[in-house]
User: What shape does this take?
Amino acid sequence: MTEMTIQKVAVDKSTIFSALEELKQQDARFITITVLDRGEELEVVYHFEKGKEIVNLSMITKKEEPLESISSVYGVAFIAENEAQDMFNLKFSGLNVDFGGKMLKVESALEATLLKPTVGERPPTERFYGKCREECPAMVNIPKYLQQIVDGDPEGAYETIVERAPIPAILGRVCFAPCQTGCRQEKKESPIQIRLLKRYAADSMGSLRRAVERRPSTGKRVAVVGGGPSGVTTAFYLGMQGHDVTVYDKSGRCGGAMLWGIPKFRLPKDILQDEIAAR
Assistant: This one.
């Protein structure tokens, strides 16, 4: 059986409709839209099937900047665009929603809104994460920080990692990397070296202290017993919530089993201490 090939085409507001018209002439079938959060921007990807090929039109747009609906070319796209409006706060101008009045629309709906529940509350939308992220015990947003590295933004990747795992230089050396087991690339070849890329992002930042925006003080004091990786992580996030945290460890210093249970060639002690101190 012939495998589908995938082609990604970068477009912008000035070129997307010429690309759409070309796909239409080639009898390409619209599949769906995906939206990827790129920090201050969104990547909107329109997916099409053309014979044995998947064509993805990729467009970068500022958040809250309206896009022109493609429903004037591919009418069925209004369904995906309508969902994107609700899930990602995207705005589409010129959204073709009525098809000559043949589609059901609730009386209270806005003109540019279709396919809303006619009664009761809207059912929850189930969203799925990438398998690599699901396998990560900390649920780090792996696809996001990998893309940031590809885009030449290791600092942004570092910030993304620290949102869920505050010791990336350590994890980039000793984590057992279950994310790589879940990597889709493993089906064809070897998985993406996610752990090494985490290490790259952390090492690019050196031992710089992270500019943390703590919440206002709650006036509460919390004691964390044990200065191992779990204790350090717990103390870090409690501190970000505005609590006054003290870590107690019988050895008198943080690090736990990482100090004596991991060889120096795997985890140099200066890197261990610098990263813990930077927290």
In short: The chain has eleven helices and eight strands. The two ends are 53 Å apart (CA to CA).
